[in-house]
Amino acid sequence: MVNRASLFLALRYLRPKRSFVSVITTISILGVAVGVLMMVVVRAVMLGVEVDFRDTLMGAEPHVLVAKDNAAENAPPWQEALKLAKAQAGTLSAAPYAGGILYMARDDYQTGTQVLGLSKEDGQANLAKLTPHLMDGSLDLLEGTIVISDYHAQQLGVRLGDEISVYASQNVNLAVRQYGEANEEDSPEKKKAIRDQIKLNPQPLRISGVLRAETGGYNGYVSMQTGQKLFQLGQEVTGIAIEIRDPQSAKDFTRTLEPRLPGWKYTLWTDAGESRLAAMQNEQIMMQFVLSIIALVAAFSVMNTTITVTTQKRREIGVLAALGSQPGQIVSVFLLQAVVVGVIGTGLGLIGSLLVLWLRNDIRQLLTMATGGQVHAVEGVFLSTIPAYIQPMDVALTCLISVALCIVAGFLPAWFATRMEPAEALRD
Question: pTM of the full predicted structure?
Fold first, then answer.
């Protein structure tokens, strides 16, 4: 139990009338507050960036794409695969799609993208995810139309309602092979005959919608009939687009589904940004290490205060020891001093961090204006604002570590101070 005399002396040493220690105490409290503020704010912002990026991927990409492996002989037909996917636990929706890589051209401009051909009825869940990212047009997916991203629209120099020519990837690959075979022929007649067979078969499509690539991804979307026609599938499909209830468990979902669908390949929503997500996690680990060093520096400031007090109060420590005070009682005086500094500093840092996080976008705007820059924040664009995600457990752990470091920093010099002989301390 804390002795009232120990608490009285601790508060008295923190607020002396005729010494410079009070200023040092203030600096120590501010050091702890800044350390806690840095740890909470940086951690919250970095987690916010990761969560925002995950939400961006999940909000546009299909959670799981299951495509049939043409080389597999034991793969079940897509109709059976669709039933199994719908019956799988955790499935929100499953829709067949006809898609692949599509090359697009307009005048002298060309580009390519992955295209998904969806039925408006079966693919309603997939299309509903894209609605918030639609900049212009509609997602009706009428026959002979295509929805592309604004990135590809800029590359082609087109707008809503313009017509582009598209080429299926297999047609381009076949043309490349034929051209290579023609170059290998020595006979001019055979070379000409092969080149005459090269046909890309361009298909005209009208742009019916434009998606924001920053948040809606870079895929293109057509109707199921248009996709089957472009990729020469007949009545077949390329695969199944699956939406699941818990996107975070996509890998576990595919592990469960894979034995039931042999001969099918899986593409997860995390594949598009897996390297970036891994990089974010590595950055968080390194940043946590740097923040720990900052917290340690704040603890050193508390230790500095305790060392200063124990040095200046050597005679008083000697008097307490001569009067029969136990070493633990003397140590408790300086431990209470460190606890007071740690609690007040941690509390101020926590309040300051919550205030900074609340005003983070206003602070960014003020700093930008002060440095002569400009803020071009487009609503809905990834990182258009500074994201922040506060985990209560992280905040609580940060505060506990801060107070614990202050206690350790106060204990060490106090323990050494109690080892002095009373007579030696009184003579000093």
Answer: 0.63
